[in-house]
Write a structure and sequence with these properties.
Layout (H helix, E strand, L loop, with lengths): L17 H12 L3 H4 L1 H37 L6 H9 L1 H33 L7 E5 L2 E4 H20 L1 H29 L12 H9 L2 H5 L4 H4 L8 H29 L2 H5 L4 H10 L2 H35 L18 H13 L7 H30 L15 H18 L11 H18 L12 H16 L1
Helix pairs in contact: 1-7, 1-11, 1-14, 3-8, 3-11, 3-16, 3-17, 4-5, 4-16, 5-6, 5-14, 5-15, 5-16, 5-18, 6-15, 7-11, 7-13, 7-14, 11-13, 13-14, 14-15, 16-17, 16-18
Length: about 475
């Protein structure tokens, strides 16, 4: 039985401050995608089209983030989505939303474990030694895979040691990432040219959507703040605000990357580059060394996103276990560090294995996690609307949209936009997924189905839903014994 079932609910340490929280949210969103995908954005949509798509995506995520901001301030508990959907829509729907966002987190944690050796190889071209096997045409080498696997062990160990230690590492790496951004801006003014930004628009709506559909992957991470809310030592109202601020900062970052990269080289040359952003910085400064400095920034992005999402996924699994929806093993805290070490070890173990699947896994992981992420966002928006209607007197330290109907409009917009984004991944749509991502998506949900049926049915949504779930599970266990 879990600690929660025996009446001794485990607790997490409140050790994170404002800077820690902002670094977690912003750093989670600024992963590796901006390093390798910018060239494709520019070739698909042009400079102006890519910026328009990114600003549109930023607005969508900010609207979704506003629903999170209110709910996070009202329910500052570990698990974020799990708590909101549980109170609004009941335990089984809560499990669906929680499993969806965990799936999104896990795919990106695995993505970063694969992206790291690919990035390191840009600096050390002879990295690949001792061939193992071939996956989808990519020959996996032992030394290449070990770079990602060893990094997975180190990052998991840092997180097991404590959230404060992980937060300190996150803050320093984010500061380095910001320094890389300043270098890109300086390089654009000193070595870039406005003529290189042509064409501003290309590809029409197809090009626009080709950029827009990667938004869930690029912006996932602001929701790590709600996951860690129980470990944050600041007022609940400020936690909610930091959710939206982190989305705004990420949008500014992506627009900056598009502008500076497009100013460096013509789009035709960027499209043929191995790692477009790095080649662009090298061209702006006329230096291969500066290209490698940018790659160091890419590695920083990998580490910040990896660290944050590992933390977020483990807190969600901990929260599900605490409410009896996952085995109690996932809810155990380390006796010394008070971190959900079993959940961390489980996710860390998956990221250790990921590099051995080769570089082709990068695209599959990005695509397979995106529909689950959007599903979770949509369920949170619906929960926001339900709680506004059913519990108007609920304590809301941060009430978005003011006292009138503005909040309802925000919630409706978030739900509609989430549904629209999800539809883009369906067959026949601009972002229709290939067979491999759907197989990974399906495998994750088959596993989830096993746990779904352990969640008791017939329990109404509400503030005491978790207690009713645990009571039914205790009764079930008693009947078996």
């Amino acid at each position: 039985m879990s600690a929660a079932e025996t009446g001794t609910e485990p607790s997490l340490k409140k050790v994170l401050g404002r800077i820690d929280v902002l670094a977690l949210g912003f750093g989670a969103m600024i992963g590796f995608g901006w390093v390798v995908l910018t060239g494709d954005w520019l070739s698909n949509a042009g400079t102006g089209g890519a910026i328009l798509a990114m600003l549109t995506g930023g607005v969508i995520m900010a609207i979704v983030g506003l629903t999170y901001a209110e709910l996070c301030a009202a329910m500052p508990k570990a698990g974020g989505e799990h708590n909101y959907i549980l109170r609004a829509m009941g335990p089984r729907t809560s499990f669906i939303g929680s499993w969806a966002i965990i799936g999104g987190y896990v795919t990106i944690v695995a993505f970063e474990a694969v992206a790291l050796p690919r990035t390191v190889q840009y600096i050390f071209p002879d990295l690949s030694q001792i061939p193992l096997w071939t996956v989808a045409g990519f020959e996996v080498h032992l030394t290449w895979a070990l770079v990602g696997a060893i990094a997975a062990v180190v990052i998991t160990w840092i997180n097991v040691r404590g959230v404060k230690e992980a937060g300190i590492v996150q803050t320093f790496v984010v500061l380095f990432l910001l320094a890389i951004g300043l270098i890109m801006i300086f390089g654009s003014f000193s070595g870039g040219a406005a003529a290189n930004m042509d064409p501003w628009f290309t590809g029409g709506m197809t090009g626009f959507f080709a950029v827009l559909v990667v938004v869930p992957f690029l912006f996932i991470g602001f929701d790590v703040i709600p996951q860690s809310a129980e470990e944050v030592n600041i007022p609940a109202r400020q936690i909610g605000r930091l959710v939206v601020i982190s989305v705004i900062l990420a949008t500014i970052w992506y627009v900056m990357v598009i502008l500076t990269t497009s100013s460096a080289m013509p789009a035709s040359e960027l499209a043929g580059a191995d790692i477009a952003t790095a080649d662009a910085v090298g061209a702006m400064f006329g230096s291969d060394f500066m290209a490698k400095v940018l790659i160091a920034g890419g590695i920083a992005g990998i580490l910040t996103s990896w660290n944050s999402l590992l933390m977020g996924a483990s807190r969600l699994m901990f929260s599900l276990a605490r409410s009896g929806m996952l085995p109690a093993w996932f809810g155990r805290l380390h006796p010394k560090y008070h971190t959900p070490h079993n959940a961390l070890l489980f996710i860390g173990g998956l990221s250790v294995l990921a590099p051995f699947g080769g570089a082709e896994m990068l695209g599959w992981l990005v695509d397979s996690g995106a529909p689950s992420i959007v599903l979770a966002y949509t369920l949170v928006a619906v929960s926001f609307l339900i709680l506004r209607r059913r519990e108007p007197g609920m304590d809301r330290p941060l009430r978005v949209g003011g006292k009138g109907k503005g909040g309802i409009a925000i919630g409706i917009a978030a739900a509609i936009l989430g549904t629209a984004l999800f539809s883009l991944y369906m067959p026949g749509m601009p972002a229709a997924l290939g067979i491999e991502p759907w197989l990974l998506f399906g495998a994750w949900w088959v596993i989830g189905l096993i746990f779904f049926f352990r969640v008791p049915g017939g329990i109404k949504a509400g503030p005491d839903a978790e207690e009713h779930v645990l009571a039914k599970l205790r009764a079930r266990a008693g009947a078996r014994s």
